[in-house]
Specification:
Length: about 725
Amino acid sequence: MNKISLLSAVAILCVGCSEQNTSQNESTANEKITIELKAYPDVRKDSVVDEYFGTMVEDPYRWLEDDTSSETAEWVKAQNEVTFDYLSQIPYRKQIEERLTTLWNYEKVGSPFKHGPYYFMYKNDGIQNQSVLYYQEGLDGEQEVLLDPNSLSEDGTASINGMGFSKDAKYMAYGISRAGSDWVEINVMNLASKEKLSDVIEWVKFSGISWQGDGFYYAAYAPPSEGSDYSGKNEFHTVYYHKLGTAQDEDQLIYRDNEYPQRNAGAYVTEDEHYLVVSTSESTHGNALKIKDLSSNGEMIDLVTDFETENSILDHLGDGKFLAQTNYEAPNNKLSIIDINNPSQNQWTDFIAEKDYVMRGATLAGDKIIVSYMKNVQSKLEVYDLEGTYLYDIELPGIGIAGFSGDKDENTAFFSFSSYTYPTTIFKYDITANSSEVYFAPETAFEGSDYITEQVFFKSKDGTEVPMFITHKKGIEYDGTNPTFLYGYGGFNISITPRFSVVNTVFLEQGGIYVVVNLRGGSEFGEDWHKAGWQFNKQNVFDDFISAAEYLIDKNYTSSEKLAIHGRSNGGLLAGAVMCQRPDLMKVSLPGVGVLDMLRYHKFTIGWAWAGEYGDSEDSKESFENLYAYSPLHNLKEGVEYPATMVTTADHDDRVVPAHSFKFISTLQEKHQGENPVLIRVDVDAGHGAGKPTEKIIEEWADVWSFVLWNLEAEVSFEDAENEEAI
């Protein structure tokens, strides 16, 4: 356990107390431009020391964990002044923002999905802050706006976060998140009249909305204590049932684990509404399953109890038999049949067996089962009959990622397809004929045909073959001078798949090479790949990323002076750890909303749930030593020249609290030696990333690309109506 001592300190936050730094870059017009870098804030330090199994660890910026204090607010203001002053001097920053706005300004449509007689879809006319939910009766019905989240806030920071529909399609319950927070407020709408009902459910988090009868199941926490909304530890996740027309305090408690407060819980009903499924988890990996017969109000029956595998019920097939997806004795996943009369996991029978590539999900559509696979990090859609016999593949446009949407009572389904240079396109699919046609194809200002994506495999430090995708303009020369942006994640069983992102197009247009590496820790190659990059294997993830960078340099795609690295959340940990371990390897590092203090991450909001992935510094000496060895905050060294760094975070991030970034940048500014700027950009009224309005995304990425291109000394040019202007 930690032993903490606090000694008083009287130093105050001071802006402009040290000498100014300068950063220079040569423009392509051979005009020498100098950027003045204001002095970093002189941040006070406390004498805070934690003891971990005999090792004393200083934490002088602990006071920055208080995200509601006036002193922290002043610190944020002072840091942002330095950062935004620096960014404002980059001569092409405004043009990047304008170009990004132009590229973003095209109509976007999501895959239609059906409930009752209605089809629903999200649409964005270009640069709306939030996409708008439309609906229509039947495929040929007139399309109407159902819910426009842009009308819910003046600054576009309110977003739709989850929805559920009553079986008769009379009602829709929908979640609203504000300022990017994980907290959700559930409201209810009458679909025929579009009238908002009086029902309001608060303090919902990490929850689905599943209807049964005249109400729905959801999961929530008790209201947080004052001032801890965005940082307090979330415990006793509880499943409730809400009946329409009643107050929240009358909701029926369905499930809470009073013995284990740090377990998450969720509930959903089978499509026929006969069974309730309760899924619980201790971390981000593995879950237990319980099931209850609602028609007879029977007892909860345990299906899975050990949290060792990932399991979900897809449908009730009748007679107490269920179709489930599981990785029990199948690291690449499979479909199994569960018999309620013999429910133990070791009695489940295979329906579609495991393959040597990864099953991502399955959908019952028409009289078929559409199974989504990933093979070498590319989508593969396979069609099976209801007996589990393979029939054929659905043809896809190329290398990319597909998402399928269908209804088991409809012959028409939809799938989306996207890749790095292929904007998300929606296809209408005829299940019986196994034929598809374009339903919606976006028209963009980005000329995707001018670019190419290749997949390469390289060897990591231990000899493991790791894939990555490399995208750039056709005909580019591999002469070691290309500005290159290397992105990775590597954790939590999450795959980083080939998909289009408009923010990257600005960098590609400027001759940049955009690279995504599929690190261990993800699910690109199943659960074995995941476990090869978690807990005591976490260093493999960093080694993979370092090896990816070395490959790009060895093959002359780029050089260390032309390389930027980036990751967000767990990927922010990646960028932070790699810049600490190999500061010589890259010129720019961008740790975004990162988990940067590996010794204390579990003390905030939902951080405790990540212990299954990382380990816990207080559990054992071995776990502490493992985390301490790579924790970015604790591996910054005095007198080292670190790459140009811009940490990004947000004041309403209640997933990875901003204290991680606050403490890291304060330590980096204290210890860094050299000319490279080391900055933090703190977004206001924003969260971890989900639901961020378009305006804020464009502003952030204009800053990111300006910082990257300037510090990589890239040639930047823009074409106006009359001529091509180089800057």
